[in-house]
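Posting this for the archive.
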Amino acid sequence: MNELKIIECPRDAMQGMETFIPTELKANYINSILKCGFDTVDFGSFVSPKAIPQMRDTGDLLNKLELNAKTKLLAIVANERGAQDACNFEQIDYLGFPFSISEEFQQRNTNSSISESLSRVEVIQNLAVKNNKETVVYLSMGFGNPYGEEWNSEIVIQWCETLYNKFGVKIQALSDTIGVSTPDTVSYLFEELVPTLKEVEFGAHLHTRIENAKSLVSSAFEAGCRRFDGAIKGFGGCPLSGDSLTGNMPTEIMLEWFEENNILLPIDKSAFNDSMNVSSSVFTYVQHV
């Protein structure tokens, strides 16, 4: 898995916003992102509108997107019904499922136990295969646990092995849900996982403070990770972190690190700058409504 992939996540950036962002404004933003050359765009989710009201227009949004052959689309699903809804759209390439290695967070996030979530992984994986899509499983709480439950790197590794060996999940993103990862933990996990599960594409979905971003990207890349999630300007993240400065990995900082280290990416800089500008209009709208 040597190909470097950057996944832009406007869905993660927008989903927690209380003010509903009009579908046209979302479409304008995501269409600007689609011109940048990212491998994948995490654009929306098929989940209960009661749980995530911001994403209730994902189906309508999809029909307004200007797709191209370079960039694939990923939608988050939380159960069989969501996966079936997503599979109705040929344009969607990936079904993303948040699987937590914390029992407490799994209940909070998807209203299910870990055992029930494993059953959902199986169903979603079968639907993905049947509908010519791929499953991406996000291992939430992959770098720490705030609930007092047991957590260590070996537990994370065991879950990764289970997801591949039992369910055949070939894309797994380690998720720093609460922004507690360190360069050491990031290095250790990817150094252990990448050579052990050679058929799996491991990704880094890191929530972080801005000043820690480059050290985490560096640690993941040097340890063999070649799939990185980010969100322009670091919008979004998880409110459970308890730290208002902890957001998504800022895509512009991540791209800056790759450029500084002479690692070439197929990103159109002009288009990316346009997306940065459009993002301001999206999130300014939220602040002023």
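The mean pLDDT is 93. The longest helix spans residues 269-288.
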